[in-house]
Amino acid sequence: MCDVCGCGADSHDHSHGNVKTVKLEESLFKENDRLAQENRKHFDGKNLLAVNLISSPGSGKTSLLEKTIELLKSRYTIGVLEGDIETERDADRVRAKGAYAIQLTTGGACHLEAGLVHKGFHSLEHQLKEGEDLDVLFIENVGNLVCPTSFDLGEHVRVVLVSVPEGPDKPAKYPKAFRTADVFIISKIDLLPHFDFDLEKVKKEALSLNPKLKVFTLSTVSGEGMDEWISYVEELIKNKKGL
Ligand SMILES: Nc1nc2c(ncn2[C@@H]2O[C@H](COP(=O)(O)OP(=O)(O)O)[C@@H](O)[C@H]2O)c(=O)[nH]1
Ligand SMILES: [Mg+2]
What we know:
The chain is α/β, with parallel strands linked by helices. It has helices at about 20-45, 60-70, 90-95, 115-125, 170-175, 175-180, 200-210, 225-240; strands at about 50-55, 80-85, 100-105, 135-140, 155-165, 185, 215. It has a seven-stranded parallel β-sheet with strand order 3-2-4-1-5-6-7, with helices on both faces.
């Protein structure tokens, strides 16, 4: 599959004939992957679980983080890196729920890169109180199902979300997002009665792209499915801490 746009071709020229551009893209990916490995080592050294959330804008990433923080904050110290093109709004939302947060504004870039995550993580650590350590780091990527899929950030778990109102065709249209993820969350299931969205068919389609996907269906509004998600995250945190 093409690493640049995930189009399914083995590889092809994104530069309209300019070989230099292709080479530059390759070296940018290599450098990102190197930094991502460093991030992962760094997180492992701290027994810290890192989770990268990818979806279209409005699928409910920040809402899910808000609820997750509410449900886990009494037991764990939570950090969030919020990726957006502009504004501090999502960082403010998760801070209000009790997480440490840094907003990473990309100033136009449609994805986060490992180098920016490295810097953001160190800024986040500066917010911690004396003797405090993070147990889990959530990274909310810039909202779209295309660019973020090509950039490893050093996460342990990659989550892709699709909300019911977005429609059932997203796995088929954005296969790379599902092939590179570990977890698939179908969000806003409280809205199922109002949309033509066949839950089982969408799950099946995603699993046909990636049979290893762990699938959750949930709503942050009704709370349905939240227990399963929280238990899963808690289990991962405990595993990372060797508990
Ligand atoms: N009905 C419903 N709306 C939701 C749910 N989760 C989020 N929303 C709404 O969807 C909109 C976008 O949510 P947000 O978390 O900001 O999405 P993000 O852009 O992916 O971070 C907001 O108006 C939320 O209130 C849900 O489970 N059910
Ligand atoms: Mg958001």
